[in-house]
Amino acid sequence: MLSDILQSGLIISILATAVRMGTILLLAALGELIVERSGVLNLSVEGMMLSGAFGGFIGAYYTNSLWLGVLSAILAGLLISALFGLLAIILQIDQTVSGLTVNIFAAGLTFYLYRTLFPNVGATNIPALKPFSVFQLPFLSDIPIIGKILFSQYALSYLAFFLMLLVAFYLYRTKSGLILRTLGENPRVVDMKGINVMRYRFLAVLFGGMMAGLAGSFITLASVGIFVADITSGRGWLAIAIVIFGDWKPVKILWASLFFGFIDALQMQLQALGVQLPFQLFLTMPYILTTVAVFLARKRSGAPLALGVHYERE
Amino acid sequence: MYKVIIKLPYTIEKRKDISFLLSSLSIVVALTVSILAAAGMISLYGEDVGIVLKAIAGGSFGSMSALIDTLIKATPILLTGLATVVAFRAKVWNIGQEGQLYAGAMGATFVILTFPDLNLPPVVHIPLLLFASMITGAIWGGIPGYLKARYNVNEIIVTVMLNYVIQYLCTFLLNGPWQEPGSYYYNTVKFPESSFLPLLFDTRLHIGFLIALITAFLVYFLIWKMKLGFEIRARGDNPVAANYKGISIQRVTLTTMLLSGAIAGLAGGVEILGIHHKLIWGFSSGFGFTGILICLLGRSHPLGVVIASIFFGALHNGSSAMQIYSDVPRSFVNLIMGLIIVMMLFWEAVFKYRLRRI
Fold first, then answer.
1. A-chain residues within 8 Å CB-CB of B163?
2. Given A101, A284, A288, which is nearest B341 (Cβ)?
3. Which of B203-208's residues contact partners 24+ apart within 8 Å by CB, and which partners?
4. Partner A contacted by B355 (CB < 8 A)
5. Contact A32, A246 (CB under 8 A)
6. Is the pLDDT of residue B244 over 80?
7. What is residue A302's three-state secondary structure?
């Protein structure tokens, strides 16, 4: 048993899956990072991701183009996040309540639309499409071991890593990034500079929505090729936990995402190997570890000071 | 080049206080807009709006048996709604009602399966089982409560995660040690008859509905008439001031989560002892999550929660009739539920502002 696990082929396969699952989380967490850094606590990541998963599936199903599917996923995430922005930022409703409400709304909406478009879905005839195949980077994927783990991934994974660099650059090397970070710490300072706090935060929320939508499309378009209710199964919440665990810093968030991706991959592979433990117990692993992770991260200091607080002009 | 500036003689300003009347008006407006939207969408199906709405109304309140079914459907979500009220009044964000409901159902099941030969009269057996439900529900709510109180760990994430953990634990038990021998499905053996909740007025309505109503009254009494209730509200309204008044925020946080978990656990116990008479996979169709919706819709007030839960029970029930009489799918109700709650938040926020003549 143990020798099976230690076989290098298996380890490579687990690590490659870890990178794949990790990038889904990374995309959503990067979006949430920008939102939270602007001082907005967005708890509707799960709903935005679910909408993205749905939008991606529908878009690709009807246009026969996976990339148009990705685009429609981004659009779906954008629309749902605009609803959140309307409630939480423009109307200044409690951010927690807004987030929960948007989640409920997105779950109801996607479920309804799916049932309307596919009225006769049973257990056997679930509509499916052919998902993305891996995109092997020339030359790099030929490197032994590392090539298989890092450079034989989906195009969306490479995009996720690129976006991580972009987000880090934006936050720490641009003026706009500085303004965004200040917004999360002390919005009054930004307001005094004559910058519209609400508009900035709204844009941040929209970015978060697009990223969550993109992450959602990864699930339906690059992983399974089908859509079912609650297909995101808590990954949106995981993304929020990753932002906390990653101390609101892009590079740490990358490591945290990969770690959770690894747990997911381990769970899948051990299950496939037929380890003599009930599969349900494997399935609980990511959730238990998330709890442990937020517990361990309880003293993290990177949380924006004004997180979750409405800004009102005097 | 001229720029045309139209100056309206009005300005928008925020009200200091929103009156009860305006708050109620916002609910009326939200419901009206939602129903109009629903009617518009039904007509998109090419259905006669009148017939569909009549089917929904008939299926939910049209006859005695329809009304009874509505109340049966309202029972679990009334309880999870009350569990949410207790938590949200304290601004302890318990999103784990679904998991606590499972914990409650599993607690009662555990007692039944562990002591199969108790031979207790129902008068003793049922309270014992419901008590077990509340204890296990309280434990499942107490874990995030303790982590929040003692270590300030985000309760939202922990409660969401524990929802998943307990549901997998439940499938494991139903697919393993608790599964009915020889059964193909995920369910336990049928419970002994002494555990069945008694029925009211010779109908299918079990006393769970009465229990839920009594709980609603108790929650009202707790929150507005008792010291703990005052502390719960104080934590929610202004934790800093509450702390200065000598209220231990940590203790209130933990107590709130224990109570909220116990009520959600009770919902689980009532549902399986009242309806299914065994633990069966899928006994909850998202009752815990609906409870959050019910609480928000009922303005976090027990009376509002009673009304909202019956309304939702009716919607759910009516949706079956709607599916029979028209091409509109049942899932339409899920959409309408989401729409109503968004509309309510929206209009309430809008009513916070007023136009004033300059």
1. 234
2. A101
3. B203/B64, B203/B65, B203/B68, B204/B65, B204/B68, B204/B69, B204/B72, B205/B68, B205/B71, B205/B72, B206/B72, B206/B75, B206/B270, B206/B273, B206/B274, B206/B275, B207/B274, B208/B75, B208/B76, B208/B270, B208/B271, B208/B273, B208/B274
4. no
5. no
6. yes
7. coil
- Measured between CA atoms, the residue of chain B closest to residue A103 is B338
Assess A296–B contact: CB distance below 8 Å, yes or no. Answer: no
The answer to whether residue B341 is domain-embedded is no
Confidence of residue A6 (pLDDT cuts 50, 70, 90): low
Q: Among residues 57-116 of chain B, which lie with CB inside 8 Å of chain A?
A: 93, 95
The owner of tokens 């080049």 is: B1
Kindly state whether residue B331 falls inside one of the protein's structural domains: no
Range of the domain at B235: 48-326
Structure tokens at B280: 């069966």
Nearest to B294 by CA among B315, B307, B308: B308
Assign residue B216 the CATH number of its domain. 1.10.3470
To the nearest whole Å, the CA of B270 is away from the closest chain A CA by 25
pLDDT in tens, B181-233: 877 888 888 888 888 888 887 778 888 999 999 999 999 999 999 999 899 99
Distance from CA of B78 to the nearest CA of A (A): 17
Distance CA A218, CA B49 (A): 39
In eight-state DSSP terms, residue B262 is: H
Average pLDDT over residues A92-115: 89
Q: Are A96 and A67 in contact (CB under 8 A)?
A: no
Pairs of CB atoms within 8 A across A/B: 119
Contact between chains at A112 and B157 (C-beta distance less than 8 A): no
* Residue with the two structure tokens 């906390």: A244
Rounded distance, CA A221 to CA A69, Å? 8
Domain tally, chain B:
1
Q: What is the CATH number of domain A2-120+150-299?
A: 1.10.3470
Q: How far, in Å, CA of B290 to CA of B30, rounded? A: 18
Chain-centroid distance of CA A281 in Å reads: 24
The answer to whether position B130 is within a domain reads yes
Cβ(A148)–Cβ(A11) below 8 Å: no
Tokens of B76: 């679990």
Strand partners, B10: B357
In a domain, B1, yes or no: no
pTM: 0.88
Q: State the average pLDDT for chain B.
A: 87
Quote the CA–CA distance of A97 and A215 in Å, as a whole number. Answer: 23
Report domain extents, chain A.
Answer: 2-120+150-299
